[in-house]
Every structure is written in structure tokens, then in C-alpha cells.
Design brief:
The complex is a heterodimer of chains A (about 425) and B (about 90).
Chain A lengths: L6 H9 L17 E7 L3 H14 L4 E4 L15 E2 L6 H15 L1 H5 L10 E5 L2 H16 L5 E4 H7 L15 E5 L3 E2 L2 H14 L3 E3 L4 E7 L2 E7 L2 E10 L5 H8 L5 E13 L7 E4 L4 E5 L4 E12 L7 H14 L8 E12 L5 E4 L5 E5 L9 H14 L13 H4 L14
Parallel strand pairs in A: 1-2, 1-11, 2-8, 4-13, 11-18
Antiparallel strand pairs in A: 3-7, 4-6, 5-6, 9-10, 10-11, 12-15, 12-16, 13-14, 14-15, 17-18
Chain B lengths: L2 E4 L3 E4 L4 E5 L11 H9 L7 E7 L7 E7 L5 E5 L12
Antiparallel strand pairs in B: 1-2, 3-4, 4-5, 5-6
The chains are: A alpha/beta (about 425), B mainly beta (about 90).
Chain lengths: ~425, ~90
Amino acid sequence: MRNRYSAGNLLGAALGGHKDWAPAWRDAEPKPRYDVIVIGGGGHGLATAYYLAKNHGITNVAVIEAGWIGGGNTGRNTTVVRSNYLYAESARLYDFSVQRYESLSKDLNFNVMFSQRGIITLAHSRHDLDAQERWTNAMLCNGIDAEMLTARQVQECEPRLDISSRARYPILGGFTQRRAGSARHDAVAWGYARAASALGVDIVQRCSVQDFIKQDGRVIGVKTNRGEIRADRVAMAVAGHSSVLANLAGFALPVTSYALQAMVSEPVKPVLKAVTLSPALGAYWSQSDKGEVVIGGALDHFPSYAQRGSFAVNQQVIAATVEAFPSLGRLRMLRHWAGIVDVVQDSSPIIGATPIPGLYINCGWGTGGFKAIPVGGWTLAHVLATGQNHELAEPFQLSRFHTGRLIDEAAASGIAH
Amino acid sequence: MMQLQCPWCGRRPENEFHCGGTTAIVRPPIDCSDEVWGNYLFFRKNPKGLHAERWRHTFGCGQWFNIVRDTVTHEVGAVYGITEAQPRAVDP
């Protein structure tokens, strides 16, 4: 059976009618005991398992997923990867992630189709321009590429934008991070799953956590619909459902769950070159390699666990699209979905120990978890393996909500919420 | 579009309203510990199911009121005044 994806193997397999490819990963039965259980088979959970095995040699690991891998927010986002954050702590964290994305296809031997087409954040007012000058300077000080653009340069980057003075919110300029881009969401989940599985990790689907097993206050395993599974350490990477699991475990989180919706049009020939974001209009756009125009917007305005978006936000996002790209006005929409995102007050993640011994968490990415999959997995694996926080994750502890040392990136999430 | 029952204006579309989040959070005394103050500011139950929350009819009468809403189905089980206690039996 062929496991490795390469041009040679592809040619060789073609001669045999592609009948000898091995399955990409094992759909495992749960064993009664593991060194580490990771709850949540999205990008972050799968990456955690992969880095536990690859960086720390811990391979007796299970990823348990209530549905199917990559079926939650990993499959419900708009696949933008960027590190255009304001504060040094965030810049280090997210740029580490962008760097991992740059080598991810090679690392995983799976083409995640990372395309560094650049992201443009539009400025529609003098205030926007001033704020973006500051933002750009902060990024440059943090060693991250950033560049202010004039309105003419914005148009060169994205010719279909309406930069005329007739626009309701005229475009005065913007700034770009050219190393930003997008990747294929399924490929990231499948690539990590395949690479983790190859190192011995069990990927258990349709396995939902019903309760935690505790001994002397310490978590020693989970009760699931497929029986009890025990482990030395348990980690959870379940995004919008973090509060539900935390409640089962017996601690509270500074998280509120909201629906974040996005949509794609019917596929068309290449019309958009970059990822464009307009904080003022509350929407952002890119085009997938399949040709669909991918459109995202702001959060729905009220707490929700329903994986569907509200019409109020949908209407506003579509209106913004027609406003910014008049030539896309007659596109028909193909699909529309929502993911439940875990929003915290400072729009920064929580990666590390919980108040319950033996239980670790990766959550709080809010609307921007996809870009952070590699670093979320890397740093969670580090604390699980060593008991010490990774230096990148040190500022992102749950304790900051009591010390007051917040890392307020609400503005850098780009969309008002 | 979801519609909400404003106690003063009747059923109106959701984009006339602003959701103010969990209602009836009691502020601790100012000399409380950092732990208690942090919990008050940031930590929320965030239930999957019934949630007592406050809304304002911003683009209408401008008044605040409370509702009990299911965060999965978005069904509203009770609408009550901003200073009133949450009705006990709520069957959304």
C-alpha cells in the first residue's frame, strides 16, 4: 500500500489504476487508557496530537471527536491566515503560526494549499488611515511585514474594488500584510489527522464526552458514548463548546459563544486577487481555488449555539459586498453556514492549565482560530508534555482575567464586534 | 429574521435591538478580592439552552427589558421588566 504523497508515487499508482493507496488515517476504536486524551477533532485538537507525537514522542494519544474531524469550526471558517496583530505577545504567537503554515504542506506531506496572496485592510476615513499607520508601525516593530497602501495601490492589488468617490464609504487607502493568505480548511484537518495517525495517534470519531472522571479532584479520564477512557492528562480544544465542557468539569470560563457566519458564491473565473477586509463595512472577501467568492462578516449580535447565521447579519454582509464590489452584484450565493465561536473579552486565546488538575484547555480564539491551528496545537502539546507553558503561550493564561493583564486585540480581529 | 417582543412596541425585527448579554449580574462590593472582581467582569455561564439576558430596543423606544431565550433554538420563553425577577416556570 502506498502512504507517501509524491510525484513518483502518483505516477506509480497511476499505472495500477490508483488501487493501492492506503487510507489517509485509521478510524480507531477507543482503547481504555491513553497517556493523553485530546477532546475535539478540529484543527487545534488534531495539531495538538500531531505535535505531541512529533515534538515530544508521546504517541499513546487519542483525539476524540463528537462528530467527524474538521466538521466544526475548522470546516466553517473563511480560511484566512495572517499575523497582523497589534501587541508583541500576539505578534509572536500568530507569526509563529504563519511560519508553520509556510512549511506545513512539506511537514505534513499533505498539500494544504497555503496561498500567500496578501490581505488588505481598507481605510475609509482619516481616522482609519491614522489608526492603520500606528498598526503598521507596531507590526514592523514586532518584525512582521506590513505596508501602507494608497487608494491607487489598493486598486492595483484588487481591481474590482469600487474606489470611486461615489462609494458610500470611499476607500482612502489601506494596509497590507503580503505574507498573509488562505489555506484549504479540510486539507489542514486531514493533513494533521493523517500525519498524527501515521505516528500512532488514535482518531476516534462519533465519540462525545458525557462527563469527566475525577479522582481526588483530578481529572483522570472521560465518560463517553463509547465507554470510559482514562488518561494521565486530558486536553480540550472545542471552541464554542468550551463552556459546556468546563461546566461538566466544574470550572468557569470568560467565554461567550456566538454564531459567526460566512458564505460562498457560485464558482466563477478568477476575479479576486487578495483577501480584502473592510472594518467599516463589516465584511471581508477572498476567492477560493475552486472559484467561489468567500464572504465573511461580523458576529451575530447575540449568544448562540445554533450553527446557523441570523438573517440580519447576512443581509448586512451581502449589502457590504455589493457596495465594495459592484461587479459581483449579480453573483448567486451557493452555500451559507455558521460556526459557534468562543469569544473572550480581549479577543485573545487561552492556552494552558485549567483550575482542575489534569485538565488543559485551548480556547478563546473567537473569530480567528483557523490561522492559529499550528501554534495552538504546538503550545498545547508543549504544556501537556512538559507541564510547563510554552513561552509563546505564557501571556495567554486563564489567570489574566483575574490579574487584569489582558491582551486586548479586539481591534486587530479586524471586524467590529 | 428573528423577531423579539418589545414590551412597549410589540414584535419587531432583531436588528432594531441590541443584546446586552447575561442579565441580573450582581456587582460585588468594591473592596472584594481580584478573584471575585475578575469573575464579575469576565466569567459567564454561557449556557447551551435557556439564558436570561437583557436587550435594548435601540432603534425603537430605547428601553431595556429582560428575556429568557434558548441559545440553541432561539425561542423566547419569557419577556419581563428590566428590574423584575426572572419568572420561575419558563417553558420556551
